[in-house]
Amino acid sequence: MTDLYPLRRALLSVSDKTGLLELGKALADRGVELLSTGGSAKALRDAGLTVRDVSDVTGFPEMMDGRVKTLHPKVHGGLLALRDNDAHVAAMEEHEIGGIDLLVVNLYPFEAALARGAEYDEMIENIDIGGPAMIRAAAKNHGFVTTIVDVEDYDALLAELDANDGQTSFAFRQRQAQIAYARTGAYDAAVSNWMADAIGEAAPRRRSFAGQIKQTLRYGENPHQSAAFYTDGTNRPGVATAVQHQGKELSYNNINDTDAAFELVAEFDPAASAAVAIIKHANPCGVAKGATLLEAYQKAFDCDRTSAFGGIVALNQPLDADTAKAIVEIFTEVVIAPGASDEAKEIFAAKKNLRLLTTDGLPNVLDKSNTVRQVAGGFLVQDKDAGFIGMDDLKVVTKKAPTQEQMEDLLFAWKVGKHVKSNAIVYVKDGATVGVGAGQMSRVDSALIAAKKAERMAETIGLEQPLTIGSAVASDAFFPFPDGLMEAAAAGATCVIQPGGSMRDNEVIAAADEAGLAMVFTGMRHFRH
Prior knowledge:
Layout (H helix, E strand, L loop, with lengths): L4 E2 L2 E6 L5 H10 L3 E4 L1 H9 L5 E2 H5 L14 H8 L5 H9 L7 E5 L3 H6 L4 H6 L4 H11 L5 E3 L5 H10 L3 E2 L1 H29 L13 E6 L9 E5 L11 E4 L5 H14 L8 E7 L2 E8 L2 H9 L3 H4 L2 E5 L5 H7 L4 E6 L4 H8 L5 E4 L11 E6 L2 E6 L11 E2 L7 H14 L7 E4 L4 E5 L5 H19 L10 E4 L6 H9 L4 E4 L6 H11 L2 E4 L8
Parallel strand pairs: 2-3, 2-5, 3-4, 5-6, 13-14, 14-15, 21-22, 22-23
Antiparallel strand pairs: 1-7, 8-9, 10-15, 11-12, 11-13, 16-17, 18-23, 19-20, 19-21
């Protein structure tokens, strides 16, 4: 094996024909013989290029609806033969196998079919066999063969040939081999995960996950950690698919927090009311709904103005000028919304460090997907928390029943609590959070912290009393003892929503009755670690 190896013969067989004609012409101009299959061969030939069909090389026509066309020793021998091995060279001569120095293949659009929800039979026909087989063969023999699987690498290939007088370097072939194996790995992961879902296999024996690089990040959570951002190929509206209109690149923490903010605000139907969520370190510091986005933003901001500084703002309706003016009054890292008016964009343009992201819509919080978390020696996979509780699902367990207005605040608090790190306590009044306690080891502490924040906020904005007075309170999991419930009552909460299910539910219910609280059980918890 030598470092530089010339390209004399190339096989081009692509599903995505973007850039194919330009690449084919550039290779032909460099004296490279072109082999191709099916539609790729026709496209090249129609463009006036001289192309030899693979079926002419193999002596077999394409058959079985194109399922069999490249699975032949004269193809794989040409890809796998070691050019510096005398026995391999002799075998090539004996069996009239010509070497293939460049393979350009992109695969049947399985992921695209999956994204549009194709039926089972169509999905099966979009599983590529010959393509991955050739890619793996060529990549294995990267000592001599160059493998290209992505359209975006066409220009890099031509630049490499120009720099090396029609040859590719070993380092280039190595890099392309790594990309090739990552591509087939991602493809197989998509197929296997789709099939697991199709047959209802919730915990398959083997599980693979794959992604495509979107952004190399400056660093991870901290400057000493390297990091990158990958997309998974789905079209879910959110930070991975959003358009960034201004501001510097998102950081690791920005991406994480923006995702948390947008997933939270998507809980609230934009047709019913405007809603705004302000996030700091993946926890909400203010969430509210209102008749307008401006009203919702102001109510969310008033929950915890201190924490909102440098936060992430998510909206469930397109950003308008009035709301934009309010947001830029303090330092904000990122704003994400399903659209933005030109006037709002102009207002934000004066704040060059403020990132504005827009999406085509809101994510569906009921969609099924997986969450993955790495642990030492493995990883945990679970369904995304798409649990939903409606008014009819609530069970009144106290002597006093909540009023209609209290029920609405209880459900609002419950939706927010789903997105707060456990142990979570959320106080809500008039469709806005007024105190949030997150991530404490004790539920009592979460109740105390949330109430204390509300007290401080009341002083800041000049209220006579904290807004927790007369509020609804949500707990993401059951109260194991009455003490946490009593702290909420002491803060002024008048009604409670919680999952129930504690061995001491009767004690907690009795304490609620004694305190004059109305309480409902959901039968569902929302731990978020």
